[in-house]
Design a protein that fits this description.
Structural class: mainly alpha
Shape: globular
CATH class: Mainly Alpha
Strand content: under 5%
Distance between the termini: 7 Å
Number of helices: 11
Length: 237
């Protein structure tokens, strides 16, 4: 099975790509704000409500074909090295979109509860023992679930399953468990209002974990597809 060849983008295509990536960050940020508010107002029960509300962001991304860093990770096995520049560009645009929401939400009536909850959530993670390994492992599990979500659009209908449920359910699971999503986490760091090597390390470990978890299933699927090819086709490649 051949990898995709390098595909150049025109200036217009690059602009659209960046705008769709920023839009992804916006809807992720909105989902994050609503989740934080639910937890703040409802306590323990708010985790499930917040996780459900957060899934709106991924649903919008899939429905409108926006560009999300953790969603694009699933394409790494077939993307080709020359196309991997899109990943950091997507991530930067994603966190810009989250920053826009963080700023707007700061000047809304819900800001007090949201900011306090964000600081408590990320502060607790940073203060935990073995925070580095926890960040990485948590992000790996998040990456697996994100890939299941974004790939459900393609595979769920083939099995007679609902793609909507396939998209939303894994997101509810990862958000409820509090697994680390490198883009969504930026909302918490913005509100924390601090910067240190520990925070930078946490962000990088979340990114790495998302990548490891995100490529696992597509890689296995690729190996399976190659194994099922006739030997003649494999030899031709």
């Amino acid at each position: 099975m051949k990898l995709k060849k390098f595909e150049k983008m025109t200036k217009t295509e690059l602009l659209v790509f960046c705008l769709m990536a920023i839009s992804s960050g916006v809807v992720i940020g909105i989902g994050g704000v609503s989740s934080l508010l639910a937890i703040s107002l409802l306590g323990a029960a708010g985790r499930l409500v917040g996780a459900t509300l957060f899934s709106l962001g991924i649903y919008a991304i899939v429905a409108y074909e926006m560009r999300l860093f953790t969603g694009m990770i699933a394409d790494i096995p077939t993307l080709g090295l020359k196309n991997c520049w899109r990943l950091p560009v997507c991530f930067l645009c994603n966190i810009l979109g989250v920053a826009i929401v963080a700023l707007l939400a700061y000047y809304t009536p819900v800001s007090e509860q949201v900011v306090a909850q964000a600081k408590a959530l990320i502060g607790g993670k940073l203060a935990a023992e073995n925070w580095a390994i926890k960040s990485f492992c948590s992000a790996v599990l998040c990456g697996v679930l994100i890939t299941i979500s974004v790939k459900s659009v393609k595979f769920a209908p083939q099995k007679g399953l609902s793609s909507t449920v396939g998209v939303i359910l894994p997101i509810i699971v990862f958000a409820f468990c509090g697994f680390d999503h490198s883009v969504a986490n930026m909302l918490y760091f913005y509100y924390l209002g601090e910067c240190s090597w520990k925070i930078v390390g946490y962000i990088l470990l979340s990114i790495l974990g998302n990548i490891v978890g995100g490529v696992a299933l597509p890689t296995i699927t690729l190996i399976k597809a190659r194994a099922q090819q006739p030997k003649e086709e494999q030899a031709a490649e």
